Every structure is written in C-alpha cells, then in structure tokens.
Amino acid sequence: MRNKRRLRLKKFNFHPITVFIVLIGLIILLSGILSKFEMQATYSTINANSNELETEIVAVENLLSFDGMKFIISNAATNFISFTPLGILLISLIGLCIAEATGFIEVFSRKYLTKLSKTQLTFIVLFLASISSLINEIGYAILIPLVAMLYSSIGRNPLTGIVTAFCGVAFGYGVSLFVGSMEVALMDTTKQAASLIDTNTHISLTCNLFFIIAATIILTIVGTIIIEKIISPRLGKYREKENITKTEELRIIDLEEEEQHKIERQKNEKRGLRFALITSIIVIFLFIYMLIPNLPNSGMLLDMKEPTYLGQIFGPNSYFQDGFTYMMSLLFLVVGLAYGIGARTVKNDRYILEKAEHNFAKIGNIIILIFVVAQFIAIFKKTNIGTIITAWLAQLIDYLNFSGIPLIVLTLVLIAIANLFLTTPSAKWTIFAPIVVPMFMQTNISAQFAQIVMRAGDSMTNGITPLLACFVIYIGYLNMYNFDKNKPITITRALKLVSPYCSIICITWILLVIGWYIIGLPIGPGVYPTI
Q1: Which of 175, 181, 314, 374 supports an S-S bond with 216, CB 3.0-4.6 Å?
Q2: Strand, helix or coil at 348?
Q3: Phi, psi values for residue 50, rounded to 5°
Q4: Is 531 among the domain residues?
Q5: Longest dimension (CA), the chain
Q6: pLDDT tens, 69-124?
Q7: Is residue 244 assigned to a domain?
Q8: At 250, phi and psi to the nearest 5?
Q9: Using CA atoms, how far apart are residues 120 and 123, in angstroms rounded to an integer?
Q10: Are 102 and 345 a contacting pair, CB within 8 Å?
C-alpha cells in the first residue's frame, strides 16, 4: 500500500499557480518567525553628494501582523498593474498576434527558416536573445512568444524554442555587441565606489565593451551546443495532432484546378512578403530617424536632457528604452497587416481582429499566473529577506579578505548566490560595490573589471530563480505549449530543463573571466583588468 501511495504522489503535479500561492504563505510565515528573532544586516552605501560611506541597517519586516496583512491586501492591485512583465508582454503580443493572424509568421517561417539547419536556427535565437539585454527585459516579452510561434510553424518542438530564448536572455543578460541599459545601471555606482580609493578613476560606458562582445559570441556558441546536444533531445520531437477521422467517400479531384490554386496562393504569398519587406524598411527607417539628433523633427526618442548621446539613448529616462516594446509591437503589427493586404489574407477588419482575439485568448492562464507571481515577488521584497542575504554575502567577501584570482572567484560565486534572492543588478551592486571595488583596486585589479565580475555573477543564476520577474513568462509559455494539458509543467521541471544550461554556462563564465584576467587583454578602449 505504501508503494502505491508513493507512486500516486509522484504522478501528481502541482500547477505553478498553486505552488506560488503556497510560497506566498510560507514567506509570510517566515517573515513572522525571522522578525521575532530580530534578523537584520548592516551594509554600507555611498552618498552621491559627499562621496562618503553611510551605514544602512535593514531588518526583516513582519508581514504576519496587522500592518503586514494590511500591506498585502491594499497593494494587491498595484502590485499586479505595476508588474513590468504584464505590460511588456501584453503590448508585444498585440503586434505578434496580428502578424500571426494574417499568416505572416507562418509563411515567413516556411519560406526562410526551413532552409536553416537546427543548429543555425538555435545559434541565431541565442544570439538575438543575448544581445536583447541591450534594452532591459525586452527579450523575454518578445522573443519567447515569437520563437514559440516560429518553431511551431516549422514543425519543431516549440518548448525547445521557449527554453532556448529564455536561456539566451537569462544566462546572457548584460552581454551585447554594444553598450546598453546594464552600463547605465552600474556605471555611477562603480565610479562612486572607485572614488573611495582614487578620485581620478574614470568609468566610461564603453569600459566593458570588448569583453561583452567576446562574451556574446562565446556564450552563444557554448549555448548552441548545450541546446542541441542535451536539452533538445530531452524534449523530443514536435508532433501535431493527427486527424484520425477517415472517410470512404470518393472524390474526383481536378488536378488542373488544384495546381492553379497552388500557383495563385504562392503568388499571393510572394506579393505579401514583398509588401512586408517594403513596409519593414520604411518603419525601421523612421525608428532610426527618431534616434538621430539635430535633424528636422528628429530625435523624438532621445532624452535631450542627458549630456552624452549614449545617455540620451540608454539613460534612466530614455524614451527609446521606455518605448522600445511598443515600437517592436508596432513593427510586427504594421508588417503583418502589410503582408495580409499583399497576400489577400485580410478580408476585413473584423476578420483579422477575430483571429487575433483567438490567439490572444490563449494567454488567459498566464494572466492569472502573472497576478499571483506579482504578489509573490512584491511580498518577498517587502520582507527585506533578499536584501539581508545579499548584505551578509557582501560582508563575507570583506571578512575573508582574499586577493587575486581567489577574490575574483569568490566574488563571482557570492554575487551569483545573491542573485537568487535579489535579482535587480543595480540593487545588488549598490550593496556589493562599496566592498568589492575598493578590495579589487587595492589588489591591483581595476574597478572596470570588478564591474565585469558583477555582470558575470548576475548572469550565472538569472534563469534558475523564480524571483526573476520574467520567469513567469517562461513558465507560462511552457504550459501554453505543453502537449499534455492534464500534466502541467511544474516549477521544478521548468528549472530542470535549464539546469544543464546553467551548470555549463556558469563554468564558462568563470573560465572566461579568469582567463581574461590572466591573459590581460583589454576589456574596453584603453581599459585593462589590472590598474
């Protein structure tokens, strides 16, 4: 009897929504227990005006109390509405669903992607996913849904596409072919921390440029091997439901008429793709024009209050960053409509909206999941547990007082662990930088290289923490494209799918950082690992 019960328990799978609800209850209970034990931490921050260290004390906030419950209930709607993945996903899906409804995505996939080998397609997806962190979390919201659609259209397992896109963005977050939002988020903190040792230290936006370009290429190659050799075989092949109904009714097929229909359809598809290409060129040109300053009616997407051009594009108040999701959605919408008009798949506005509505309806479960996850992350953040753990790990670096390669490895590992509980790079770096940067500089390691260590540690564990806000998009789409609806993909299984990728990429990051330090190659224009 015991063996039978065990088998039944193994076959039972909790839906991610249920698991997150349970986790919310556990966090509330844990906050009450830890607050009774007065769990707290002390860390140093740098005053931006005086450039002096200031001590911050953070304690666990008890949510198992009157005020705690009041916070949970009164902020539920705000947590949901202000949850970043909700907005960027809904906006991106408007354009993607229209493009899919017109047939553009299916025909584009069949026409061009089927010519690529599986390895080539995986490499392209991972490469685009890696460089997508140039614009915050845009890769999660656009690439995961888009790649799932593309893989499904060409008969490849969409779960493989979802895992590939997610791994590329999460474990390659912060690398790119050019400077982006990560530099803006970290640069000021790095400069303030470096000024504690040398006030003349110059930290530029391009100080990590050479390293992140090399990291993008290396991580993409290694990631392609992991996906094709390990993860894809585990997920298996994609099989569409076969039509098992048969009929014995004999039909006389007019072969000439059938061939004529095929020729007409191919002609329409070619015209549709031509319309889509012309439209995409026009829209992209307009977007680029909005990024060029000092031309008639140009620079619409720039923050002209910033003194430098890079700051105008990637600054904290950049219109380009804030509006990029909308621009990409608009691109897919307009190009999809252009294809539909050219290919004559758009009969009228009602027809296209009904088809788009059908595609949009599939994300109902994801919306519910997002609501629960938004509460989970907001409640965990309110407890301060993540901040306290991060502060303890930063203090451990100071306590051990390593130097050279042991210091680099220790910092990498501890930042990676801290990222499991505090996923925002700028928040982690605010705590780590006042300790890490001076220690690095005192052992002849440059502050710019310390920033690279921060980026690497942050990327190593991004994809294996449910506290990552966009993890909800990943697990939501896994369940949307799950073949067995009676057996949902659990959080545990979702993490197991990416665990081989995480393990090998962590080793790759460590070897890359240490190897670069030993060889002493420049990490940016005129910047080296050592001072």
Answers
A1: 175
A2: coil
A3: -95, -10
A4: no
A5: 88
A6: 999 999 999 999 999 899 999 999 999 999 998 989 999 998 898 888 999 999 99
A7: no
A8: -85, 140
A9: 5
A10: yes
- What is the count of structural domains for the chain? 1
Q: Is residue 79 part of a domain?
A: no
Residue type, 381: K
Q: What is the mean pLDDT of the chain?
A: 87
Estimate the crossing angle of helix 385-400 against helix 364-383, to 10 degrees.
60
Task: Tokens 């690439």: give the residue.
Answer: 143
232 vs 256, residue with greater confidence: 232
Segment 264-290, tens digit of pLDDT: 888 888 999 999 999 999 999 998 888
C-alpha distances out from residue 206 to 32, 178, 392, Å:
45, 8, 31
Token pair of 310, please? 């890079």
Alpha carbon distance 416, 394 (integer Å): 12
What are the φ and ψ backbone dihedral angles of 296, each rounded to 5 degrees?
-55, 120
Token pair listed for 88: 């960027």
Taking CA atoms, 320 is separated from 80, 84, 287, 302, 432, in Å, by 24, 16, 9, 6, 29
Whether the CB-CB separation of 286 and 299 falls below 8 Å is answered with no
How does DSSP classify residue 241?
P
Higher pLDDT, 133 or 158: 158
Residues whose CB falls within 8 Å of the CB of residue 325, separated by 6 or more in sequence, listed in order: 87, 88, 91, 92, 138, 141, 142
Q: Across the strands, what pairs with 54?
A: 45
Q: pTM for this structure? A: 0.90
pLDDT attached to residue 10: 52
Give the whole-angstrom CA distance, residue 120 versus residue 124. Answer: 6
The residue among 473, 478, 485, 489 whose CA lies nearest residue 93 is 473
Decide: 509 and 172 in contact? Cβ < 8 Å: no
Long-range contacts of 49-56 (CB under 8 A, 24+ apart): 51/192, 51/195, 51/196, 51/199, 53/196, 53/434
Tokens for 349? 């506005």
Which single residue is written with the structure tokens 């919306």? 367
Is the per-residue pLDDT at 11 higher than 60? no
Domain housing 234: 29-42+87-238+261-519
Best CA proximity match to 186, nearest among 403, 528, 444, 449: 449
Contact in structure between 229 and 160 (CB atoms under 8 Å): no
Name beta bridge partners: 349.
none
* Residue that the structure tokens 């690992």 belong to: 529
Query: Given this model, what pLDDT does residue 246 score?
Result: 42
Q: Is residue 297 part of a domain?
A: yes
* Measured CA distances, 435 to 194, 360, 395 (Å): 10, 48, 8
pLDDT at position 258 is 67
